[in-house]
Specification:
Helix content is 18%, strand content 42%. The chain is α+β, with helices and mostly antiparallel strands. It has one domain: Archaeosine Trna-guanine Transglycosylase, Chain: A, domain 4 (Roll). The strands form two sheets. A three-stranded mixed beta sheet has the order 1-3-4. Strands 2-6-5 form a three-stranded antiparallel beta sheet, with no helix packed on it. This is ASCH domain-containing protein.
Length: 91
Amino acid sequence: MADLILPLKREYFEAIRRGEKVEEYRLYNAYWYRRLAMRDFDHIVLMLGYPKADDHERRIVRPWRGYVERTIQHPHFGPEPVRVFAINVRG
């Protein structure tokens, strides 16, 4: 199996590291559907931006625990509710 690699903005990366954010959202569209639907991964690798290969401080590796589909309202996606993949990133 493979790892799911997700680059993140600092605010979301740090919130996950602190344990405050337990789901990472990706918009429900054809691109993310192909990457996530009916697939299984070994791990999820959360990265602060695009770090160098030896920069382990900017990576969080968690076991893959799947996702659920949700409808949320979040400033990152605009003012209207949107359908997302809510990926479990609990430690």
